[in-house]
Amino acid sequence: MNVQNFIGGEFVDAVDHATLENLAPATGQLIGTIPRSKQPDVYRAVAAARVAQHEWADLTLDDRADWLEAIADALESRSEELARRESLDTGKPFSLAQRVDAKRSVENFRFFADFSREQEDLVFEMEDATNIVHRRPIGIVGLITPWNLPLYLLSWKVAPALLMGNVIVAKPSELTPLTAHLLAEVCQEIGLPDGVLNIVNGYGPEVGQQILEHEGIKAISFTGGTATGRHVAATAAPMFKKLSLELGGKNATIILDDAEMNQAVQGAIRAGLTNSGQVCLCGSRILVHESIADEFTQHLVAQVSAMKCGDPNHPETQVGALINMAHVEKVESYINLAIQEGGTILTGGTREMTGPPGPTPEGAFLRPTLISGLSHLSRTAREEIFGPVVTIHRFSSDEEAIEMANATDYGLAGSIWTRDTERGHSIAQKIDTGIIWINTWLHRDLRTPFGGVKHSGVGREGGSWSLGFFSEPLNVCIKHD
Ligand code: NAP
C-alpha cells in the first residue's frame, strides 16, 4: 500500500522521488512506501494552496459546513477500511480503531459542520456606535500531527481549519500515513476544490521543518511531544505565526477513599492503558488513598495481568502493539529506570504476547506494566513515558493528593474517582491542568476546551476555541448618525 503526497488535488511522488518504508508495528513487515518529501514538495503544496485560497475563503460558512458534511459522509462509508488501515499502521486493536479512531474522525467533521450553524457574528452596542466582530480566514495553515491517533487528531484540526475558510498544508507522522491518505482519497472523490487540502509526507525535521519555516504559512497547529513543541515554538514564534501547541502529559488518576472500588479499578485501567498508554491524556500515575490502596492494587493487578495482549485483528485482543521497536526500547528503559529508582514491578514488563497467536515475534509488543514503591518525585513518576506503564502511589489526605498531582512539569488532564462529586469538584479546581474528569475518563463534549498548561501546551482547541484559533477577528465599528 504505497502512499503519495496529495497536492493540488492530485496524488504525486516527492519531487526527487525519494521514499521511506512504512512498517507494520505488529509484525515488523513492510506495508509500503511513502514519499520522503523536502523543501520543493512543501513549496509545491504552498503554491497549490495559494491558487485555491481565495475561492475557498469566498464561500459562505454554510457552504463550507456542507463540504465538511460531505467529507464526513464519505469517510463514514469507508469507516471499516479506515479502522483497518489505522490498526495496521499503529498496531492498535482493530476493535479500538473502529470504536475510537474511525468513529471520532467522522464525528470531528460532522461536529464542526453542525457547530458552525449555531455561530453568529459578535455584536457590541455602544450608545453612539455598533461594533461587529467578523471572523476572517488566516490563509494557509500548517497542521502537524503525531502517530498515536492519526486521523482522529488530524481531522480535529482539518475540520475547523477548512470551516473557517483556510487552506491547508498538513504533515502526518511518517510512521502512520495511511489514513491521511484515505482522507485525501475521500476529498478527491467528493470533488473538494483542488489545493484546499494538501498533504505532504516525510520526516519531521525535513518536511515538518519546511512547513514551520515557510513564510506563506501563517499559522501552525501542532500536536506532538513537548521537546518537539519547544522547537516548533522557537522556529515559528519569531516569524509571528499564530501557534497552537498540544503537547505531552503525565496525568494523575486520583482514587479517593470513598471511591466505588470496581468503577475506580475499571476507570484506572481504561485511563492508564487505552491504546497501550499511548494517549496524551492517559493516567500514567495512579494516586490512591492509603486506606484502600491494598485492596485497590490487588484488584488492579489481577485485572491487568489477565489482559490479552497480541494480534490486533483478534476480537478478544485488549492490548495491541506499540508503534515500533524503538519505542518499545524507550519504554523498557523507563521500566529499568523504575527498578533502579526502587520500584517493584507488580505485573508486566516483558515482551511476551498473552493473547491469541497471530503476529510475528518481530512485533512491537510490551505487556501492560504496573509499578509500585516509587516516590512521586522519581523520574519514572514525573517524565512522560507514553507506553503501557503505570505507577501507583499512596496519599493520606486530599491536600497531599493535590500536591502529588501537581508535582510534574506537565498539566494536560487527570481524573478523580469518588462518591462525593462536590469533594471531587473542589479538588479538581486545585489541580494545575486543562481537563479533569470525575468518575469518568476521556468523556468528550467537542464544544469544550481541550489543551493543557505548563509543559503540556499553549492554547486550546475544541468548539469555539478551534474556530477562534483558525480565524482572525476583524472588528468593524460603525458610528451612528
Ligand atoms: P513528536 O515526535 O513530537 O512528533 C509529532 C509530529 O511532529 C510528527 O509529525 C513529527 O514528524 C513532527 N516533527 C518532528 N520534528 C519536527 C520538526 N523539526 N519540525 C516540524 N515537525 C516535526 O511526537 P510523537 O512521538 O509523534 O507523538 C507522541 C507525543 O505526542 C507524546 O508526547 C504525546 O503526549 C503527544 N500528544 C499530545 C496530544 C495532545 O493533544 N496534547 C495528543 C496526542 C499526542 P515525524 O513523525 O516524522 O518525526
Your description of this structure?
- The protein contains 15 helices and 22 strands.
- With 481 residues, it is α/β, with parallel strands linked by helices.
- Strand 7, helix 5 and strand 8 (167-171) form a beta-alpha-beta unit.
- Helix 2 runs antiparallel to helix 4.
- The radius of gyration is 23 Å and the shape is globular.
- The mean pLDDT is 97.
- Bound molecules: NADP nicotinamide-adenine-dinucleotide phosphate.
Q: Secondary-structure blueprint of this entry?
A:
Layout: E1 5-7, E2 10-12, E3 19-23, E4 30-35, H1 39-58, H2 61-76, H3 79-90, H4 94-116, E5 122-125, E6 129-137, E7 140-144, H5 150-163, E8 167-171, H6 178-190, E9 197-199, H7 204-213, E10 217-223, H8 226-236, E11 242-246, E12 252-255, H9 261-273, E13 285-289, H10 293-305, H11 325-340, E14 344-347, E15 369-372, H12 379-382, E16 389-395, H13 398-405, E17 410-411, E18 414-417, H14 421-428, E19 437-438, E20 453-454, E21 457-458, H15 463-469, E22 471-479
Parallel strand pairs: 7-8, 7-10, 8-9, 10-11, 12-13, 12-18, 13-16, 15-16, 18-19
Antiparallel strand pairs: 1-2, 3-4, 5-6, 6-22, 11-21, 14-15, 17-20
Bound molecules: NADP nicotinamide-adenine-dinucleotide phosphate (NAP).
NADP nicotinamide-adenine-dinucleotide phosphate (NAP) is lined by residues 144-148, 153, 171, 173-175, 203-205, 208-209, 212, 223-225, 228, 231-232, 246-249, 280, 384, 386, 412, 457.
